[in-house]
Request: fold
Amino acid sequence: MFTRRSRKHIWRLTGFAGISIGAVNAALIAGNPPTARVEKLREFWKLITAGGPWDGIARFAMAPSIVRNEFARGLLNQLSAGTALLGGTAGFFAPRVASAWLQPPGSIEATSYYDTAPLKATLERLVDFDRINAGETRFSIGAVNVTTGNFLYFDNTTHTIGAEHVMASGALPPGFPAVEIEGEFYWDGGLVSNTPFNGCSRAIRVATPSPFRLTFGAPEARCRAPCLR
Reply:
């Protein structure tokens, strides 16, 4: 949709907001020039969805000539999910060598089953944080303060954004560890709000040839042009 609509219409995006995995997508877009955004998004998603030894088997097993019912497809989906659960995902997260149950009480390792260091390396490779912090576009991502339970937006007008801010927005417990930023620990913003509408309303303006309005509600509600469908 992003590629198709960007070719058909002239959109000048002046800001991006996201929560959880949406924060990662927002960083990939805001942290790259317009000509490279789609490429970086594809690179990230291909990386984290690439399978291990099971990948070739799954591709063969998912052939239409073999999978002809929902039960078989669901079974293969469960197999894929189980593989990620046990072995992690390339460029994203990996199981801790020693289980969280064996980690020292009170340590950050004892509060999560996976290590997200691979995600930090991936973000630093694919995202130009200097570009985000230069303020060319507004960037705002949400996270939750572990101590207070309060929701907070990390915004490039008030913070110097780094990989840790994006990781904090996607640190979903108990799978992923809380991320420490300036002495405070943060979890996934989705624990409080899954959608960044509040951040969008104050941080994002979209320049279009005519007023832009989205109508949310009943299925019969329609978008007022120009609108992304």
